[in-house]
Amino acid sequence: MSRITPILMVLLLFVGVTSCKKKCKLSDDTETGNMVKNVVFYTKYVAWAAGTQGATLNSNAGYGDIDVSIDGGSRTAVNYNNYTVLLITPAAKCNSQFDKTVTIDHANMKVTYDLVVTQCSNCTDIVNSDQYVLVPKFPASYTVVFNTTYVDK
């Protein structure tokens, strides 16, 4: 019996150590719908945090300079004659995945930016993360809807 006790203790210790919370694995962020893909945003200063209610930017006025690089190209200022920038700033857990979808419905004069934030439930720190998308210019008369959904993994 004395030989079984140490083996049993080692086995219990091994099970206890290996049963700790496993690291949460997330996929890469995705971009779908009516947006320019593979854009890197460079911001010098954004004067207003968009929050989940979102922001529609048709110029740098009030937001500071926003530059972009498309498909690894050179860094240039956003051309607001051709593009609009949509922004949601969710408060997300420290390990998160952001899936962005933009739909431009010209028949109903409506633009919808859906953001799904998949976050690791074992991560407790909260960070604000600006989620910009560059979309083709649309008329100012269009209604813009911002939807943010949180999924814990």
What's the topology here?
Elements: H1 4-18, E1 30-33, E2 39-43, E3 55-57, E4 66-70, E5 76-77, E6 83-88, E7 91-93, E8 96-105, E9 110-119, E10 126-128, E11 131-136, E12 143-152
Parallel strand pairs: 1-8, 9-12
Antiparallel strand pairs: 2-4, 3-6, 4-5, 6-11, 7-10, 8-9
Describe the structure in your own words:
The chain is mainly beta. Helix content is 10%, strand content 44%. It has one helix at 4-18; strands spanning 30-33, 39-43, 55-57, 66-70, 76-77, 83-88, 91-93, 96-105, 110-119, 126-128, 131-136, 143-152. The strands form four sheets. A four-stranded mixed beta sheet has the order 1-8-9-12, with no helix packed on it. The radius of gyration is 22 Å and the shape is globular.
Mean pLDDT: 83
- Which term fits the overall shape? globular
For the largest beta sheet, what order do the strands appear in spatially? 1-8-9-12
Largest sheet: 4 strands, mixed
Radius of gyration: 22 Å
Q: Could you give the count of β-strands? A: 12
What is the distance, rounded to the nearest whole angstrom, between the alpha carbons of the first and last residues?
44 Å
Low-confidence stretches: 5-20
Number of helices: 1
Q: Which percent range describes the beta-strand content?
A: 35-45%
What structural class do helix, strand and pairing data support? mainly beta
Roughly what percent helix? under 10%
Helix-strand pattern: HEEEEEEEEEEEE
